[in-house]
Amino acid sequence: MKPLSPTDQLFLWLEKRQQPMHVGGLQLFSFPEGAPDDYVAQLAEQLRRHTQVTTPFDRRLDTRLAQPVWVHDEHLDLEHHFRFEALPTPGRIRELLTFVSAEHSHLMDRERPLWEFHLIEGLGERQFAVYIKVHHALVDGISAMRMIQQMLTTNPAERDMPPIWDLPVRAGRDDGDDGPSLWRSVGHLLGESGKQLGTVPTVARELLRTINDARKDPAYDSIFHAPRSILNQKITGSRRFAAQSYSLDRIKAVCHAFHTTVNDVVTAMCATALRTYLMNQDALPAKPLIAMVPVSLRKDDSSEGNQVGVILANLHTDEPDAAVRLTRIHQGIQTAKDRYATMSSEEIINYTALTLAPAAFHLLTGMAPKWQTYNVVISNVPGPKETCYWNGARLEGMYPVSIAMDRLALNMTLTSYNGQVEFGLVGCRRTLPSLQRMLDYLEDGLAELERAAGL
Amino acid sequence: MKPLSPTDQLFLWLEKRQQPMHVGGLQLFSFPEGAPDDYVAQLAEQLRRHTQVTTPFDRRLDTRLAQPVWVHDEHLDLEHHFRFEALPTPGRIRELLTFVSAEHSHLMDRERPLWEFHLIEGLGERQFAVYIKVHHALVDGISAMRMIQQMLTTNPAERDMPPIWDLPVRAGRDDGDDGPSLWRSVGHLLGESGKQLGTVPTVARELLRTINDARKDPAYDSIFHAPRSILNQKITGSRRFAAQSYSLDRIKAVCHAFHTTVNDVVTAMCATALRTYLMNQDALPAKPLIAMVPVSLRKDDSSEGNQVGVILANLHTDEPDAAVRLTRIHQGIQTAKDRYATMSSEEIINYTALTLAPAAFHLLTGMAPKWQTYNVVISNVPGPKETCYWNGARLEGMYPVSIAMDRLALNMTLTSYNGQVEFGLVGCRRTLPSLQRMLDYLEDGLAELERAAGL
Lengths: 455, 455
Known about the structure:
homodimer, alpha+beta, Chloramphenicol Acetyltransferase, 2 domains, 6-stranded mixed β-sheet, 12 helices
């Protein structure tokens, strides 16, 4: 038995029918050489034999003395969690994304450990996919990514590898509070009141007071400049997931030409994609969109957990010239990073929490505040650099599947893997129609910069 | 715009995370002769072209003046409702039932019309399946069955047949209150208070008063004799669906031998299945289980709607001898029917409502009353007698997928089709482990009676 941390409770509290709070990961594999045609069915059989389930995947929610706790599930039904499924004809990536969109829209059963592992056959030429879904209260996005990496190997000859739910428990992994979490910053801001989610009105009042104080403070004024946009509406329960890989070499060539970082270029690609998408919807705000970009601020290797800060990146979506846009985005991010370098840990926590506060206030109260601190989340999660394998099957791509929320209808999360930048876009399907077109607009954004650089 | 009837509101009100209130139907088809291997994919393409959606499938929920209403969905996204999916290897009935179990566990998106149509390929030898899921607030089980029949034809040559969401609207179909509904009986019992679901405490108080009065009345005493059993626990959100066809000829042969009706024999099969299942769980109550069996009471053809009554069938699960059990079940049902014959319409409504009242009270208040009027629902929905086709594909079987509820963890619904009796069992997967074994126990129940009859 383990009490839920305030942050974990927050994710349960925020969850509602039209706002599931689980994160996911999609991995694309190709068959090992010489594997039989029914390779995936054989793999399913093999996985079904892993009836041992290690922490945290054995945990289900319970209540003790009116407090939510994690308990070991005595009656874990692996068939509920491990699902062998198939794509319909013609089994393209399109059918896979449709499948993940539907699955990512479904709430999980709170009577059971909050995770699902979907093994998906019927994909193209001797490929298959794995879609892992975990509630954010159980595992945060970064930890989930770490566990997925732990499941993989760089050795193509290795076999008998366990699935994610049967990994050996590592020291420290059991502690739900060791991972980096932006949400925890909100908890810090609130101090003690954040530990009592039962008293939401108190927490919300505290948030409101802090926000109002900050808005009067010139030091924090720049936080409250995001325009209103269609990205910042109430959402429905249906998701659209879109994912694609982009060549890291191409992105790096643009970096060199413009003397920017990889992160600047992918942020500029997102800016172009958003600009084109919103213009096509006749909904581009006159003021530039602001992206919330979580960044790691770790200065040394001494601490196990990462320190996470938030950059409010001006995306300059009002600027028609792609090269100018990239340069300005680069300057903005650089300025924010420089500012962080001069800040103490406490100042960083305060700044981060203030940035998140309006969204937290809205999520907790359902009231729509007039101030929007950012329009979209663009998150970059580190991934493996080398070619990875799972039981001999080569990992071709891995895509994050994150959370859309009320007033934050779109989440753009990316990771890097083996010379690729892997984008996963999650959005409310009704608020943001034809979201999948953004994949082409991301490509257009990169091509535009290549042309501007004369590449 | 059309206000929701009190009954429709009831289904929305009763729905919660672990208790979805949708009904479903599973149809099994074989390919038309000479159809190509990618027949189902071609069918999917054809169905996607039916972008016109007729009433009630175009309706979504909205609120006007604080009252729930149905409105026409201006932005209906067919891709959300029509889903082309596939079974994993080896594509047996077992994989199909696993698929339907998972899909039937998912809540639907309330921002959209509350229905889904799943076209499923990858089933055995040139077969495919259709799983239709509709919220009970939109369409009740009998109406859904009627619409499915309207989608079919007895002519194997007919092509270009519309799917269920594009059927021509028939006069009368628009009126949500014309179908038979047991739930409406509860509304009748409550009179005006039943029309104001906003005041649930009032409704519940009224129910409690009525139940307590009835328990003192010797005429209604027999209603409150069901034992407590594991079937009558709180449920979780995961469902297990199990389905199988049984030969009507075999069942009729038993009928003739014992001078009973088909319905008596299928009820006796259910009794045996429940007895065996509960004995294996070491959970058979000493007192016999009571089944709630909805029956049609229409005496003439003058009225469009069916009058529905409820028989509380004693299943004699304490009786070890199968033949004795069948005879007693037959006598019990006959006595109940005879009693109905002497009752006025008003008396029938009162009796039915009283039978349902304890379950309704529990569902509305979450409080577990001490009185259980029945342990399980066994429902027989009329189906087509002749071989049916859909676009040339022969219908091989059709199975109802109904609702499990708190304290009614198992629903046994059956229908008849083309010389078969088609059972669909829906249960809470955690409360009732290995529910699928009941299919074998139903068969055992039939075989036992055949032996007893010397067949």
